[in-house]
Amino acid sequence: MIGLGTYAFFWQLSDRMPRPLTLAQALERTAAQGVGMFQICDYPKILTFGRGELRDLRRRADDLGLRLELGTRGTTTDHLTAFLRLADVLEAAVVRTMLNPVGDDAPLEESEGRLRAVLPDYDRAGVTIALETYERVSVRNLRRLVEAVGSDRLGICLDPGNGVAALDLPRDTVERCAPYVKDVHVKDFAFTRSEGWVGFQYTGTPLGTGLLDYAHLERAVRPEPNGIAQIVEHWLPWQGDPAATAAEEQRWTSVALEYLRDYQKEHDHD
């Protein structure tokens, strides 16, 4: 299933906009694009929502025909328990999180212990934890941790571009993670020379125009046959003013959805 996440609305939801989108408005725009999934990811305000607000959000998602997922950072037991409670009210089947976010340098053994402590509750609730690939934890170590825990309720949120800063190449990341993928973040990326030719910038680019080998990812993971959500995200630099940035963000989303749909049509016989 193809979906959008809060990172597809990163700037439109931010306080840099004169009138930032609400989460409900982001849901409405997602449904208007004809997709069936929305991931509320790295959106701290969700922790301030009362139970009534969460139920209203769930009802709005139902009205729009959207499934919901959640995303956060960190593995402390209190934090993951709080997100399990959110998942229960929002009927979210996946909580994406990240090992060792900035400010938490717990060794992998400690993270493993934390996950083992909460996974029985996640299992009873039918909710899966998906650990995202990114530069603070090597893909090799991430896979080792998932294999060590050995739970069907623990897997990987695959984002091939995140680990480049730690020299985890995107194709290697895909191949190492493929057996354990529960979620995919789909975004494209590219290097450009910095002004004066001193160094590079590594930023997002519209899907299909950068370095992401989506065909390789699709062959390795097989998200559609395996029921794995593909959540569209962007690394869009600020475009100089709110209106231009919002318009470009919307354009990138349209490009990404068209790319994914065209790919599916071309390969639906595979």
How would you explain this protein's 3D organization?
Residues 29-253 form the Xylose isomerase-like TIM barrel domain. InterPro entries: IolE/XylAMocC-like (IPR050312), Xyl_isomerase-like_sf (IPR036237), Xyl_isomerase-like_TIM-brl (IPR013022). GO terms for molecular function: isomerase activity. It comes from Dactylosporangium sucinum. By secondary structure, this protein is an alpha/beta fold. Helix content is 40%, strand content 19%. The strands form two sheets. It has an eight-stranded parallel β-barrel with strand order 1-2-3-4-5-6-7-10, surrounded by seven helices. It has a two-stranded antiparallel sheet with strand order 8-9. Helix 3 packs parallel to helix 4 and helix 4 (108-125) packs across helix 5. The longest helix is centred in the C-terminal third of the chain and has 26 residues, at 242-267. It is globular, with a radius of gyration of 18 Å. The model has no long low-confidence stretch (mean pLDDT 94).
- Treating each run of at least 4 consecutive H or I residues as one helix, how many helices? 8
Structural class: alpha/beta
Shape: globular
Which percent band covers the strand fraction? 15-25%
Overall pLDDT? 94
Order of helices and strands: EHEHEHEHEHEHEEEHEH
CATH class annotation: Alpha Beta
- Strand arrangement within the widest β-sheet reads 1-2-3-4-5-6-7-10
What's the alpha carbon Rg, rounded to whole Å? 18 Å
pLDDT < 50 stretches:
none
CATH topology: TIM Barrel
Number of strands: 10
CATH architecture: Alpha-Beta Barrel
Describe the SSE topology.
Elements: E1 2-5, H1 23-32, E2 37-41, H2 51-64, E3 67-71, H3 77-90, E4 94-97, H4 108-125, E5 128-132, H5 139-149, E6 154-158, H6 170-177, E7 181-186, E8 188-193, E9 200-205, H7 214-221, E10 229-232, H8 242-267
Parallel strand pairs: 1-2, 1-10, 2-3, 3-4, 4-5, 5-6, 6-7, 7-10
Antiparallel strand pairs: 8-9
Helix pairs in contact: 1-2, 3-4, 4-5
